[in-house]
Amino acid sequence: MLKKTLRTKYKTLRNELSEIEIEEKSLAIANNILKLPLWDKTYFHVFLPIEEHKEVNTEFILHLLSGKDKEIVVSKSDFETRNMTHFLLTDNTKIRKNEYNIPEPIDGLEVPATKIDVVFVPLLAFDKKGNRVGYGKGFYDKFLSQCKPETIKIGLSFFEPEELISDVFESDVILDYCISPDIIYAF
């Protein structure tokens, strides 16, 4: 299926989820993360969800990482350059929603992409080969290509995979895992 068709399909499916379903599915996803072999890593990049788009609530993941004394990294997006700047999330980090309602750090201690060990990746859909469909701006593909090759890329999805995304580009970065509320997919 084409990315454009998948974007429409999964935006509609997400809009049909209730707040309770989002919370329950987000918690189940966080619980599945505990089963992954990544707890020897230090720097974990987490996206802060756009509530209006009914994204996976990563608050549970943030608590999990904080409880395991991991270094948590969050990003700020530049829509002109399509670059992301990454900051260490601390007790002093001030978060503000940008013009697209994306919660972002105002500033802080910058972390280079090459230092990040694990990235939790937002997505609308994914396929059985580990390809993902995002919002189509390319922020995450650009960011992930700047990470070291061994960085673990983990998609988070409320839904199960499609058979195949047919219009994958060479610049699209494949996931290592995708976690749904029920299953951990490894690629």
SSE inventory with pairings:
Blueprint: H1 3-15, H2 19-33, E1 43-45, H3 59-67, E2 71-78, E3 83-88, E4 95-97, E5 103-105, E6 118-121, E7 125-126, E8 132-133, H4 139-146, E9 152-156, E10 177-179, E11 184-186
Summarize the structure in words:
Helices cover 24% and strands 22% of the residues. The chain is α/β, with parallel strands linked by helices and 187 residues long. Strands 3-2-1-6-9-10-11 form a 7-stranded mixed β-sheet, sandwiched between helices. Strands 4-5 form a two-stranded antiparallel sheet. Strand 10 (177-179) and strand 11 form a beta hairpin. The two termini are 19 Å apart. The model has no long low-confidence stretch (mean pLDDT 96).
Key descriptive features of the protein:
187 residues, Rossmann fold, two-stranded antiparallel ribbon, seven-stranded mixed beta sheet, EC 6.3.3.2, 4 helices, alpha/beta
CATH top level class name: Alpha Beta
CATH superfamily: NagB/RpiA/CoA transferase-like
CATH topology: Rossmann fold
**Residues in helix, %:** 10-25%
Q: Please tell me the total number of domains.
A: 1
Outline type: globular
In terms of quaternary structure, the protein is single chain
**Poorly predicted runs of 5 or more residues:** none
Radius of gyration: 15 Å
What CATH architecture would you give?
A: 3-Layer(aba) Sandwich
Number of strands: 11
| Count of helical regions | 4
Largest sheet: 7 strands, mixed
Q: Give the N-to-C terminal Cα separation.
A: 19 Å
Judged by helices, strands and strand pairing, the structural class is alpha/beta
* Strand-residue proportion: 15-25%
How confident is the prediction overall: mean pLDDT?
96
| Helix and strand run | HHEHEEEEEEEHEEE
Order of strands, widest sheet: 3-2-1-6-9-10-11
Keywords: ATP-binding, Magnesium, Metal-binding, Nucleotide-binding
GO molecular function: 5-formyltetrahydrofolate cyclo-ligase activity; ATP binding; metal ion binding
Cofactor: Mg(2+)
Pfam families: 5-FTHF_cyc-lig
